[in-house]
């Protein structure tokens, strides 16, 4: 007996592909709900374990920037299903602290499957912005070898001020798995006191990177024209990136183990206020900053000249257009004569300058 | 706890308000995946509707789900669902696997 082809049968069994598709969608939705909830519980667990420390150090804990009054919301801002942030402000020695909880995309099934091949961990990033008087002028970073190599390439300030290869942490009594990038030896000696060494040694596995800089402007940004026309804006910043233990299989209890790292952050804020370079160090730092600025100006000299020329031509064209559009012929004539006189004066000034330069050269 | 026993480090008069980071000045902050998935979803929806390919329509629905935003019912999500519905209304036969 011949079998009736599947597409001519009327039973639900022939719709197995559709059933598979719907099952897949249901699995995605279930994973979305479970993943989102897990991230939310982790975020809340982190906040519960850190709340007391933060409230004892900052007058404002939690702000979304929208309310009229600066009052603590006392809760995290949820940016999306896997990123939460918390803004704290109102403390000595700093402007404010932005904490970002960057969880894994547990709500995305594709991401969950990808992580089975390549495990990644949740991260907590703490960015402390400082006032001018809260920190002296230096650039310093310590962290895992891989992170230091990457940051030295990516970060504007680390590539400009810490050009030497990262040094092994073993020289300073911290695990070999950590490396140091520093503008000068005095800075490393100043930062790596016994308490800091203790923090780094006890929690080396959770430290991805620690970056102190008075010239922080974020990662290098390439403009479309090839080079930015002005130096990027810098801000005195401390940037800490911590790895949450568990390598993705994190539980709310693991958030307590991050508390000593927040203690280290607070300790660093107070310490850097007191850390001052000696005279030689300060001179070296000033020379470094002047060198970077000079290099930048040299590189962008051609672009700035071109931009100035374009502006001058634009101005001339606009003036000519104004004269052409003038209806009164007398007024037009007067404006033309005034423009010609201005051009003549400029030319005479330029000729005088050239003569003076020639005389000086002789 | 590292509270300074000498003095309270809190300063209510030194409060700065939170300013959300500007993603225009730093494009690395934005995640492009939802936008790509959204676009892919729209392309597959159009293919599914015009070429009457059921598997295209189903992929469009998956893309819309992955781009998150469809869960808040945007145009791409509705388009992909309508692509699936239309292909089954026009041809109620079950989908055949590509192999």
From TrEMBL, chain A:
MF term (GO), any: calcium ion binding
Keywords recorded for this protein, A-Z: Membrane, Transmembrane, Transmembrane helix
Record Pfam families: CCDC47 (PF07946)
Chain residue ranges for the region called Disordered: 295-362
Parts of the chain that traverse the membrane: 15-34
Lineage: superkingdom: Eukaryota
UniProt biased composition (Basic residues): 352-362
Biological process annotations from GO: endoplasmic reticulum calcium ion homeostasis
Protein's membrane topology: Single-pass type I membrane protein
Family: Belongs to the CCDC47 family.
Protein's name in the database: PAT complex subunit CCDC47
Organism lineage: Eukaryota, Metazoa, Chordata, Craniata, Vertebrata
TrEMBL record, chain B:
Region: Disordered, residue numbers: 1-30
GO molecular function, one term: protein folding chaperone
GO biological process terms on file: protein insertion into ER membrane
Protein name (Swiss-Prot/TrEMBL): PAT complex subunit Asterix
Coiled coil: none
Family of this protein: Belongs to the Asterix family.
Annotated Pfam families: ASTER
Locations listed in the record: Membrane
Keyword Protein biosynthesis in annotation: no
Transmembrane segments: 39-61
Taxonomic lineage of the native organism: Eukaryota, Metazoa, Chordata, Craniata, Vertebrata
Top-rank taxon, per record: Eukaryota
Chief localization: membrane
UniProtKB keywords: Membrane, Transmembrane, Transmembrane helix
An annotated GO cellular component: endoplasmic reticulum membrane
UniProt KW Membrane keyword: yes
Organism: Cyprinus carpio (Common carp)
């Amino acid at each position: 007996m011949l079998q009736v082809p599947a597409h001519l049968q009327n039973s639900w069994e022939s719709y197995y592909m559709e059933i598979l598709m719907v099952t897949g969608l249901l699995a995605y939705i279930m994973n979305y709900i479970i993943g989102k909830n897990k991230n939310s519980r982790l975020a809340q667990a982190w906040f519960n374990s850190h709340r007391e420390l933060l409230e004892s150090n900052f007058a404002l804990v939690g702000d979304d920037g929208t309310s009229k009054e600066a009052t603590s919301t006392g809760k995290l801002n949820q940016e999306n299903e896997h990123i939460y942030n918390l803004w704290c402000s109102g403390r000595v020695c700093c402007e404010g602290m932005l904490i970002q909880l960057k969880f894994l995309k547990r709500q995305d099934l594709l991401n969950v499957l990808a992580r089975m091949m390549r495990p990644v961990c949740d991260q907590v990033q703490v960015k402390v912005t400082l006032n001018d008087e809260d920190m002296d002028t230096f650039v310093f970073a310590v962290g895992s070898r891989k992170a230091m190599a990457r940051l030295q390439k990516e970060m504007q300030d680390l590539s400009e001020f810490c050009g030497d290869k990262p040094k092994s942490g073993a020289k300073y009594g911290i695990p070999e798995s950590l490396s140091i990038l520093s503008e000068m030896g005095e800075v490393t000696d100043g930062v790596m006191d016994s308490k800091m060494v203790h923090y780094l040694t006890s929690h080396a596995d959770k430290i991805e990177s620690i970056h102190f800089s008075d010239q922080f402007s974020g990662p290098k940004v390439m403009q479309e024209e090839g080079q930015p026309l002005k130096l990027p804006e810098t801000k005195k910043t401390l940037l800490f990136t911590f790895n949450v233990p568990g390598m993705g299989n994190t539980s709310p209890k693991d958030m307590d183990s991050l508390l000593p790292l927040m203690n280290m952050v607070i300790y660093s804020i107070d310490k850097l206020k007191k850390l001052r370079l000696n005279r030689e160090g300060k001179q070296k730092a000033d020379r470094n900053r002047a060198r970077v600025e000079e290099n930048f100006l040299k590189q962008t000299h051609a672009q700035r000249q071109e931009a100035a020329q374009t502006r001058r031509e634009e101005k001339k064209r606009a003036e000519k257009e104004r004269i052409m559009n003038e209806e009164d012929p007398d007024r037009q004539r007067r404006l033309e004569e005034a423009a010609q006189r201005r051009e003549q004066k400029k030319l005479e000034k330029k000729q005088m300058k050239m003569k003076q330069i020639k005389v000086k050269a002789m | 706890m590292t509270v300074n026993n000498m003095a309270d480090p809190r300063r209510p008069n030194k409060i700065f308000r939170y300013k959300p980071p500007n993603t225009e000045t730093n494009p690395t902050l934005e995640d492009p995946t939802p936008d790509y998935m959204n676009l892919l979803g729209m392309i597959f929806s159009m293919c599914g509707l015009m070429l009457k390919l059921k598997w295209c329509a189903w992929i469009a629905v998956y893309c819309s789900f992955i781009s998150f935003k469809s869960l808040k019912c945007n145009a791409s999500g509705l388009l992909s669902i309508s692509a699936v519905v239309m292909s089954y209304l026009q041809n109620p036969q079950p989908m055949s696997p590509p192999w």
